[in-house]
Amino acid sequence: MLAYIGRRLLLLIPTMLGIVLVVLIFIVITPGDPVRLMSGDLLTEEEMEELRIELGLRDPFFVRYVNYIGKLLRGDFGTSYKTKRAVLDELLKRFPFTLLLVSMSMLLAVGIGIPLGVYAATNQYSWKDNAAIFASLFCVSMPNFWFALMLIQLVCVKLGLLPTAGVDTWKGWILPAITNALGYAATIARQTRSNMLEVIRQDYITTARAKGQSERNVLFRHALKNAVIPVIMIIGSVFGIALGGSMISEVIFSIPGLGSYTLSALQSRDYPVIQGSVLFISTLFALVLLIVDIVFAIIDPRIRSQYIVKKKKAVSGEAAS
Hints:
Layout lengths: L1 H28 L4 H6 L5 H11 L5 H13 L13 H36 L4 H15 L2 H15 L15 H26 L3 H8 L4 H31 L1 H6 L5 H11 L2 H29 L1 H20 L1
């Protein structure tokens, strides 16, 4: 397992190099001049050109790429054009807000999605199943920004129950978490339903029922225990996606997280912030997937047995040679 983790961590290196390359390509081909946006009418054309040269915007593509990689190796994500602050410091300061929002959203999504998926699977082809499927499709298709605005209009403006923006108190986290959670809950519910339908048709479930066990015990002790294993992979993937996908909620509800920071950088063509944010979020996503793979191997004995068999074959092959 340690060797597997080491290989996966080493694979992060070419992945990150590729991400930096792709982001830099998009920065180069995207129209917009950060120097002009920063200076406005305060600088002359000659002064703006000097500033472009100073910032390295006139350097050849691969020179910019190599220079940025060199900075990363020293732990330097660059300095924001707009605020003149270190990008890494800003990312670390804003990351807890995004992590808290995503964690709350995922807890709520799991609490809704898994029970809804089990309920739909145990009532297959009934109106209850159709209602659950319709609700899942609606939540997946519903735009986050629209739902967030509807919640603000109803809960905040008309009823006055919660603040419209800001997270100064715990109440400010409720609407952003609900906004993010419904789409994720729908994805988890659909995957849970599919897995439950596959599991409850297995022979060991029929055997458990034949032994006289209650339907509740069969479902939750035998069926759900095995059906939820693939769902863990979905939850991990969704969690990683949510780290970079909470931008809309952060902007609408004025949460100073990674998403709102990245969007502000995109609007002002703040290239160091854009590069640093994408790289930071991508690294987090890769680490989350690694953790999910490790958890998956721990809870599923079939994965462990496959790894042990491969290891024994490799050892026997080396001994034979």
